[in-house]
Design brief:
Radius of gyration: 14 Å
Number of domains: 1
CATH superfamily: Frataxin/CyaY
Number of helices: 2
Distance between the termini: 25 Å
CATH architecture: 2-Layer Sandwich
Structural class: alpha+beta
Length: about 120
């Protein structure tokens, strides 16, 4: 698949369809809970719209981030202003298929850029 930060090969974890659905469903729910908390705490108003395995985040400047599940590939996709990213589940975390970066770190980076302030998603 790629290499980790130490240059060692990384291999995606084989998941059953049920495990994949649970893991991606949990991730989408975590994103929704986080954006709801930010609204309640008056940090930022990010509208979320979820349709099945697709979650759209709409920012105050009308920009969007889309998180989308890809069951046939067992991937989680992230689309933002800076581009599109694909993540596979490797050693207990969703990792970018190109550089091995972790999904929530990438989502936090992109949300911070879209929101114009530091925003951090964490498990």
């Amino acid at each position: 698949m790629g290499t980790d930060h130490a240059g060692e090969a990384t291999t995606p974890t084989a998941l059953s369809d049920g495990e994949y659905r649970r893991l991606t469903g949990d991730m989408l729910a975590l994103i929704e809970r986080t954006t709801d908390r930010w609204l309640q705490d008056d940090i930022i108003d990010i509208d979320t719209q979820r349709t099945g395995g697709l979650l759209e985040l709409s920012f105050p400047d009308r920009s969007k981030i889309v998180v989308n599940t890809q069951p046939p590939l067992q991937e989680l996709w992230l689309a933002a202003r800076s581009g599109g990213y694909h993540f596979k589940f490797v050693d207990g975390a969703w990792r970018d298929t190109r550089d091995g970066s972790e999904f929530l770190a990438a989502l936090s980076r992109e949300a911070s850029l879209h929101g114009g302030r530091a925003l951090k998603f964490s498990a």
